[in-house]
Design a protein that fits this description.
With about 375 residues, the protein is α/β, with parallel strands linked by helices. It is built from 14 helices and 13 strands.
């Protein structure tokens, strides 16, 4: 039986999808699937996470033409590049991750299946979506119509990573048919949570003993809405009287967004920018609370990691976050405005979150293991082949 799989991701920048494809490819290799990971180039102002692959023996090919930004010239060359790879490898399945890879990869498969008798099955995982919050309304409509076309003519299965996300993509945005959709939770490695370093990060950034630390973890980009985080800190500092409270931005991004964010926060003494951090034991060990202010999300890995590390979470009620936090039993879901965030910073400093963090820890261990992710995708691959 042909068990060759080509997995395509737009780029291996810092973020949950890069870890996801690495864990998934490694696990499926052990199930007998022969995975080849194709990724585009990381932009000059982004941090490369391809070194994460070094932990695993994953075959990796970098496409020089696949880029995040739109370019008819490079996009065409990338489709040709992927098509030639399909001819050479003859995979049974092509599995795409992230929107640009989804477009280029499935177009290449469409052409391949038109000209060749041995048909390739296609699977696409939505880690988030670009139908709302990323672009202008016109661009969002164009991308939505492209996705509807690809779902109809070049997709066998669509994986969504939460019920909320599936409801949005299937029912609200009308992408694909019900029988194409399957929900498969992410998987994360929670081993870091058993060896949290409580002191090093705080010592390195001169955070005094006894301080409380709120952190926002993730790529700095417009969709993550870090400006709201900064505004909420300013409002909190002005209207509440707690002492020794620090707010940490962990992550990096495009230079424009980072410089703009630092400029907005330049007069705020208790905000720290740490840049990208690769060791979760190091930075999660420093946090007392995790904050998420995103405009839209699939299933944010930072929240799952905070659950594993028993860190209380406060988040905007968006996308798949609603599913993982539930009816506030595993964290706090709030409206996305500075007053609400500041009010909940104050609340979290005054209440005991022990029950919530225990519920959250049990939830992530029972529902988001790498083993479960690999088994579910393995079952899907066997079903469609």
């Amino acid at each position: 039986m042909n068990k060759k799989v080509i997995r395509i991701i737009t780029r291996l920048n810092v973020g949950g999808p890069s870890k996801h494809v690495s864990w998934l490819s490694n696990g499926l290799d052990q199930k007998g699937w022969h995975n080849i990971l194709v990724s585009g180039k990381v932009e000059a102002d982004e941090n490369d996470m391809s070194e994460f692959l070094c932990k695993f023996n994953i075959k990796h090919i970098e496409s020089k033409n696949m880029k995040r930004s739109i370019s008819l010239k490079h996009d065409y060359k990338s489709i040709v590049e992927i098509y030639k790879l399909l001819i050479k490898i003859r995979p049974k399945i092509v599995h795409t991750h992230m929107s640009k890879a989804a477009l280029l990869g499935r177009l290449a498969v469409m052409f391949y299946n038109f000209f060749n008798a041995d048909k390739i099955k296609t699977v696409h995982t939505f880690h988030g979506h670009t139908f709302q919050g990323y672009f202008s309304p016109l661009k969002e409509k164009i991308f939505l119509n492209i996705e509807r076309f690809l779902a109809r003519f070049s997709t066998d299965k669509i994986i969504t990573i939460s019920k909320q996300q599936q409801d949005e993509i299937l029912d609200r945005f009308k992408v694909g048919k019900k029988e194409q959709h399957i929900q498969i939770n992410l998987g994360i490695d929670t081993n870091f949570a058993s060896q949290l370093d409580k002191k090093s990060f705080r010592n390195d950034y001169n955070i005094p003993d006894g301080s409380k630390v709120f952190g926002i973890v993730g790529r700095i980009a417009d969709i993550k809405n870090h400006e709201l985080f900064i505004d909420s800190v300013k409002y909190f500092n002005k209207n509440y009287t707690h002492e020794n409270i620090y707010f940490v931005v962990i992550g990096d991004g495009e230079r424009f967004f980072v410089e703009n964010l630092k400029n907005i926060a330049k007069d705020v003494k208790n905000i720290i920018f740490s840049g990208n951090q690769s060791n979760p034991s190091y930075f999660y060990g420093a946090l007392d609370y995790l904050v998420l202010t995103s405009k839209n999300e699939g299933t944010p890995v930072s929240i799952l990691e905070a659950f594993a590390a028993e860190i209380p979470v406060i988040s905007a009620a968006v996308g798949g976050v609603v599913d993982i936090i539930g009816n506030n039993e595993r964290g706090y879901l709030i409206e996305a405005n500075k007053e609400e965030f500041a009010k909940h910073y104050d609340k979290m400093l005054r209440v005991d979150c022990h029950i919530k963090v225990q519920e959250a820890k049990n939830f992530v261990e029972n529902n988001y293991s790498i083993e479960s992710l690999v088994n579910n995708v393995d079952g899907l691959y066997k079903k469609i082949t």
